[in-house]
Amino acid sequence: MMKKKRSNSPKRRRTSKNGPTWMIFGLFAVIIFGCCLTTTPAKEIEATNEWTLLGENDTVAAGMHVRMDLTTGEKWVKTIDDDDNESETNTNVHVVGDAVAAVVDVQGQVSVMEQTNNDNNDRNDEEAAEPNYDYEMMHRTLSKLPPEEQDRIGGIPKLETKLTPEQRAAFEARMKQIWEQRQADLKQFQEDHLADLPQLLKDRIASIKTYLENPLQGLQELQLASETQPNEEEEDMVGDIVAVLQDLEYHLTDVDMARDFYTLGGWPVLSSLLADAVHESTIGSNSTQQQSLSDDDWNKVNLIQAHAAWAIGTTVKNTGEFSPYAIDQVEVPQANQVVKTTTLDLVLAQFVASSTAVLEYDEQSTENNDSDYFDTVMMKVHKTLYAVGAMLRGNRQAQTHFCADQGPALLANVLTSVADQVDASGGNKNTLKIAQRLLSLAQDIVMDVTLHSSTSEQVDQAIGNAFSDAQWCQTTLRFLPIPRLYETSLLTIQQLAPQCTAEDLDEEIRKERMDLLQATVTAVQQAQKQ
Length: 530
Description:
By secondary structure, the chain is of the alpha+beta class. It has helices at 19-33, 82-87, 125-128, 135-142, 147-152, 165-193, 197-213, 215-221, 241-251, 255-263, 266-272, 295-316, 343-360, 371-392, 396-404, 407-425, 429-451, 457-466, 470-477, 486-500, 507-529, and strands at 5-6, 52-53, 64-69, 75-79, 99-104, 110-115, 237-238, 329-334, 337-342. The protein contains 21 helices and nine strands.
């Protein structure tokens, strides 16, 4: 049983994922790292046999003897003499009270030794460990805090131009107190608000694997919207598999999280949810036969696959680094054997199947208890189409694979079925939205290969032709009379037209048709602006 637990991650808010939290963290970081930074001219020290104090940016030639006092940060340099060679055997580093010496040889190698700073021998360990603060810089930095934050920490003392020794000591003591308080606040903030993100991803991957080990149990724990009472569970609770996928999709909007998710092995686990067979069997069971699912169970599977596709699309969307993920090989069960496929193929198959189911569904003649079926299948249609578009746009490698597997023809069949329904009954907002998104996808892919040619002209031409065959060209024209789709149809025709015209068409006639089409599109766009 997967028990509900509170997510380690911040509560999901898409409008501002990290806003105020990261602004506070950034302000803390400025305070912590912004002090005591000054710029001095860099120069190379001409060392002698006497210790010479180094400036902050001064450089040292090879073969010099360097000493640093860790209590003050001061560094000295001199040439190496015979006495120094005898002491180089002592390489222990003493971090408090004494100085650390390093010898830079002519090859640039550094050896470290312990040196006693006679000037500091009379200091006790507590004084030696005291940081050397720049209190004026502290004051300037802390004075930039918002007034309410300054009030919270008890106010920032004024820095007078002339202070008595007693006043100066009081000023420094107060600044030190504020500074240490702010450091403690930052540490507490990190503990309270910065989740262990890699562990969070591992937990989500483990939750998916747990579901795959016993999907029947996972389906029993899952409730559909019609079965859930209002306010039955809090928004930030992560329990059933759908809640896990929702939370995962949110985190995968972050590029670093998406990269870590892939590195941790989450991609094939997530992709496998798109295979129907994984939801019908239990890993490790004595029987190899798949168990039949009820209609209610299949509605839940549709919901799971919709959210899995959503997370997949979010991961690869607009990120070139993740483009290869689309055609990564994934092993899934099929007919009592394991077959190799790709994430793109799995998502495409689910889109085609769910689109066909929606178009064949007669909502008016169906009993009310089947409303979950229509809702979950329609959600899967939109999420899988979103994932297909995310994996194909700007991804020449995935486009090539897609065309080789007859992907454009499968999408054209869906578009033709939508056009047939529109001709028969006028369609509805759901089916028209499918058509609009398919037309936009074809338009974007053809425009991509036209404007951004790859190293292979033959590959670009094949992709363009796959989305510009007779079925695509003729079906696109069928949506022109529909007010909601006529602009999208015109823009798509504009991209497909160069390939749609007959190959033996006279070049002058081809040019006239293209000019007429361009003028029509321009006129439509201007009319809409008015």
